Amino acid sequence: MIGKSLNRKKLNNKSRFLAFLVIAMPLLAWADIQEFKLDNGMKVVVQEDHRAPVVVSQVWYRAGALDEVNGKTGVAHVLEHMMFKGTKKVPAGQFSRIIAAAGGKENAFTGMDYTCYFQQLEKSKLPLALELEADRMANLQITDEEFAKEIKVVMEERRWRTEDKPQSKVNEQFQAMAFTEHPYARPVVGFMNDLENMTAEDAREWYRNWYAPNNATLVVVGDVSTQDVLKLANKFFGSIKPHKLPERKPQREPAQVGERRAIVKAPGKLPYLVMGFHVPTLQDKPSTPEDEWEPYALDVLAGVLSGNDSARLNQKLVRDNPIAVDVGAGYDSTSRGREALFELVGTPSEGKTVAELEQAILEQVEKVKAEGATQQELDRVKAAVIAADVYKRDSMFYQGMQVGQLETMGYGWRLLKIYPEKLKAVTSEQIQAVAKKYLVKDNMTVATLDPQTIDPNAKPVGRPHSH
To answer: Exactly one of 35, 48, 68, 80 is catalytic; which is it?
Structure first.
């Protein structure tokens, strides 16, 4: 499985922006996170959680679609598939069987910014997971035969995820228009032509370039002793030699200087609209006061517009005046590429057009620019952070995800400590300011689906995949 990092996160499928993900727990809750660095450069982050005899281990590589080059799109995801195809010690297909026999669950996912491999097991089985991960970090075998079989699986997956889904086609076109020079323009799954021409040597090259301990972070969350985890990490990963990583060139998207639009025609039942505006992300070292608070204001703005049934877009455009079947806003304030979009998406109601829906959404944006947010809206958004925590805090996997993502994207897990208070400090005036500054026509990209008649005899061209 690729996981939700593969596809762009839209509307109902969109995981909530970081404000709704980062949990507003007291600082003490993060006090038991400890980090270490092995002699070979591998980072180890451990969070003890003794509520159940379970452990989650995740190995994060700082390598994703962001690092690919034209002509080899999708290779990060292809290598993720090949990581299950065996070493000298563990033949192809045995990795998953060994974990299952130990009563565990495992999988992996590829995103723009990273690739992650994970296991969830009874705590005494942690050494097994780490031994297997260390083995394939250092000793993966990529044979021409296994590659030839797996690349066909990946192509099937692309057909299933994109060619068979009209909204996915729109999202891919939208991404390619919004980013004209940055690697975020390319799909994580890769372009079909690149997959058709990819070779086993392309996958080997990716593995040699990026799969090294000095480009990886081990995250362990669960009923463990931090010192025991560190000993195991040294035992299994410590002897793997680091190597020089390829130079990462700075990559910035030029400022957009005019509205961009596209219409995608594909078989479908309903029209679909996605609008995006270039906005900043959180910065490592903010150089101005605006750099510091604007991402938090954009997070809260997304919550004012979307997030639950009482948010503005849903209240005004779905319930009060049903111009839309569904509508929403989303923004991710963190990214390794330090580029982000503020997105507004929706599906018009029967008898309504995407043009009418677009106009209605933009009218709500203009009201925010003119009036800001009410205290009630601010309180609702900030309360949602705490409410999300009540549900999310129970998941060891989720806790590991937060740490792994932030570490791999270069922010560090300590952002979890400060984020809630920064969010709570956002004012109505700041929300107005970011809406006025960034949500403007010359900074807008729009893609729409013009649904075509569906052939009742047509069959899906692809199929899903699991390791």
So the answer is: 80
